[in-house]
Specification:
By secondary structure, this protein is of the alpha+beta class. It contains 6 helices and 16 strands. The strands form 2 sheets. Strands 2, 3, 4, 5, 6, 7, 10, 11, 12, 13, 14, 15 and 16 form a 13-stranded mixed β-sheet that branches. A 3-stranded mixed β-sheet has the order 1-8-9, with no helix packed on it. A hairpin with a 4-residue loop joins strand 4 and strand 5. The longest helix has 53 residues. Bound molecules: zinc ion. The site of zinc ion (ZN) has 5 residues, from strand 7.
């Protein structure tokens, strides 16, 4: 999730691999090899996770994410770039989010996806379900000087995770996706005029999963406060396929080309962690609804049976009265 930053920043020696190692998602430099070069990748509190109901806990103190400066003027520009691992878009330092008690300044956003034949490439999963793709919007804690400093602190980063699913055409994502042709090869850049970045997020900013995790790419620092929105954002099949087919991990001069596909990390152990949820979990809600429905049905049947019994007795009584009247009538006729 942090791949944009590495080429753009001067990398302190401690982060850099000691030799010519270039991490990847498959092959000999695939993720099982990451810990040999980047210790954090084999450590604790790693991401991504599957949000399974057994690790979720409702937390009523989680407030909706507050966005600031996300509506960017068309006179400002973002830089879209291919860094050999993903496509990233630089963001403006005037953009930030509030997650009390801190303010986090926006740094960049990037994508993770699968491939045409298996279009399931989100990093986080919900109840075992992997989504089509995932966007990460990276922010750093404003108490640190920059993102490079912040990533070494436990409370340094806050990332918003947006799950993408196939549905209707999305015009805001199209502003990014139609420019992928300009960054096909590693090292290429393109400019995107400002727009309202809130339109990239789901409408419900109050429904999310929150936990403490890590960067999902080397160096895998466990410094991320994750907020993954519950509701996916829909893009069209054509838009997803443009993401899955447009890019290469290799540069334009390379004799061999390597498609940029399946750039998502496998699920990590939750360890001793609990994932907080800002909404009542679906299963609990379903059980509650079923219980309520059960009570309503039982009450209904009981009332029906009681009424039926009461009606029966009433009819019996009516018959007795009728008979009595008959007798009285008979008696009168006799008078
Ligand atoms: Zn990411």
């Amino acid at each position: 999730m942090f791949t944009l930053l590495l080429p753009l920043l001067s990398i302190p020696a401690a982060w850099a691999a000691s030799d010519d190692y270039h991490w990847a998602y498959s092959g000999e430099n695939g993720e099982t090899s990451w810990p040999t070069k980047y210790g954090f990748c084999g450590g604790v509190h790693q991401s991504p996770l599957d949000f399974h109901h057994s690790i979720l806990q409702y937390d009523s103190t989680l407030y909706p994410i507050r966005l600031q400066g996300y509506n960017v003027s068309t006179t400002d520009y973002f830089t879209l770039s291919n860094n050999g691992h993903t496509v990233s878009m630089s963001l403006l330092p005037t953009m930030s989010i509030e997650i009390p008690p801190f303010t986090y300044i926006a740094s960049s956003l990037h994508f993770h996806w699968g491939n045409l034949a298996h279009p399931k490439g989100s990093e986080h999963c919900i109840g075992g379900k992997r989504f089509a793709a995932e966007v990460h919007v990276v922010h750093y804690n404003s108490k640190y000087a920059d993102v490079a400093t912040a990533m070494n602190a436990a409370d340094g980063l806050a990332v918003l995770g947006i799950l993408l699913e196939v549905g209707s055409f999305h015009s805001s994502y199209d502003g990014i996706l139609t420019r992928l042709v300009n960054v096909k090869y590693k090292g290429q850049n393109a400019l995107i005029p400002g727009f309202n970045l809130q339109t990239l997020l789901p409408t419900r900013l109050d429904e999310f999963y929150r936990y403490e995790g890590s960067l999902t790419t080397p160096p895998c620092n466990p410094s991320v406060l994750w907020t993954v929105f519950r509701n996916p954002v829909f893009i069209s099949l054509e838009q997803l396929q443009s993401l899955e087919t447009a890019l290469y991990c290799t540069d334009g001069n390379s004799t061999v080309t390597e498609e940029m596909i399946n750039n998502y990390r496998q699920l990590q152990n939750k360890g001793d962690r609990i994932v907080s949820v800002s909404f009542r979990e679906g299963v609990v809600l379903a059980v509650a609804l079923a219980s309520v429905l059960g009570v309503v049905v039982i009450t209904g049947v009981t009332c029906y049976l009681c009424n039926r019994k009461r009606r029966g007795k009433k009819n019996e009584k009516k018959m007795v009265v009728y008979k009595a009247a008959m007798v009285a009538e008979e008696n009168t006729s006799k008078v």
